[in-house]
Design a protein that fits this description.
By secondary structure, the protein is mainly alpha-helical. It has 5 helices and 2 strands, in the order H-H-H-H-E-E-H. The chain has a two-stranded antiparallel sheet. It is globular.
């Protein structure tokens, strides 16, 4: 008896899915991801600030989808950026400290040698995002989006080729 009742519901779901598939493809949304260092959760007008005036951000928030229950993977800039781009925890990536502006590239995980008074070894943070990581920008590009990054990169120094460290500092010209 239960199976007979479940079949019409299953057919209804399949029929509605098939009718959606036969129609025009849904329009892809525009995506704007704003990441600001040291911005408190209530520092914009759309989140309740009466001190800071943020009319442009407030308008964007009113016209789009707001995700208000977020989690930062790390309280520091470079590890958070690496986590957002790769979808992995900063410790797994190896970027655990904002050292990605340093001129000497460290791409392999290592422990500090320490000394006789050091009881717990300290892991050295990587200071570049490794080229083998598949990033959010790459996933969006494969889905047909044009992507761009404006502002502080802080995940290493780049040339015009993908994920190539530059020594010393140089302007960012990474092809997104």
């Amino acid at each position: 008896m239960m199976r007979i009742q479940g079949i019409p519901i299953f057919l209804l779901v399949v029929a509605s899915t098939a009718s959606r598939a036969a129609g025009p493809p849904p329009e892809r949304p525009n995506i704007l991801f704003i990441l600001a260092d040291d911005l408190g959760w209530r520092d914009t007008g759309c989140c309740g600030s009466t001190f800071y005036e943020t009319p442009h951000i407030d308008r964007l928030a009113a016209l789009g989808l707001r995700l208000t229950r977020a989690y930062a993977a790390n309280p520091l800039c470079s590890p958070t950026r690496a986590s957002i781009l790769t979808g992995q925890h900063p410790t797994r990536i190896g970027i655990t400290w904002p050292a990605c502006h340093e001129a000497v590239a460290q791409l392999e995980k290592r422990l500090d040698p320490g000394g006789p008074s050091i009881r717990v070894p300290n892991a050295q943070s990587l200071n570049r995002l490794k080229p083998e990581y598949y990033t959010l920008a790459e996933a969006l590009r494969e889905a047909g989006y044009s992507t761009a990054h404006f502002g502080k990169w802080h995940l290493g120094l780049w040339t015009s080729s993908r994920h190539t460290p530059v020594l010393p500092l140089a302007p960012c010209r990474r092809p997104w």
